[in-house]
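Standup notes
- DV: blocked on the single-chain target, sequence here:
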Amino acid sequence: MTSLKSAVWIPLFDELADPRVVASLAAAAEEAGWDALFVWDHVRWRSPVRAVADPWVALTAAAMVTERLRLGPMVTPLARRRPAVLARQTASLDVLSGGRLTLGVGIGADRFGEEFSRFGDEPDDRVRAAMTDESLDILRAAWTGEPVHHHGNHYTIDDVEFLPKPPQPDGIPIWIAGFPGNLRPRRRAARYNGFFPVNLTSPDQLAEAVAAVQTFRTEAATLPADPGATSAGAVAPYDFAVALEPDVDPAPYVAAGATWCLTEFDPHSVTQAEVAAVIAEGPFR
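- DV (later): unblocked, structure below
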């Protein structure tokens, strides 16, 4: 499994809702040989969780104490973020980290913390999906450094340059998250750099999702390129990420197509000591 990459994936809740704690865990993960530190992106979660940290502040703290570790939110619900603001945040963090940002993206859900309904944000999944697609178009256009002209159903950007550009030559990698059996996230993922099927129950379920996304990528490669795209879909490097508990053998998932394994923790009980102990044991290999 020499090609497998391993990430620590932490909810920024309670004991982990302190950017200084996240920074210390990131530094330890880099020293222990992990490939990435990814964080949850939420503004609220259900009880018993009370404290919640901002992912961009936490990732900035992590970037300041690491040199190699890949970083990113996994995943950001784009429908509750202004794409122009997110374009600035992502580019700034990519500059700060020296090109180490991966952006995980999803449409979000209200079921775990009422994160949309309690704040007056869009509750409808289909509308949030349309907002997500529009935001993704804006982000990829913004990262080119060229003036962005966008007049869509949800957002307007009228002749604005977004500088500085992210330093990654092909732009910031985008991984699309979604439940493995849902068709639309798979089609969306085929246009970007990776797919993160959440709530997997078996390697077979992953293998089926991998095959479906690869089919969509092959189909997408025959279409005219997106204005913001950096490379043709079927030939660009592509990742499939899975979330596994620390004691799960990743080998069957790697055989099914996984290129990244994210170590997951119970959001209702996770502690700094628990994460530190898993980090010290070393990454999935």
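- Follow-up: The mean pLDDT is 92.
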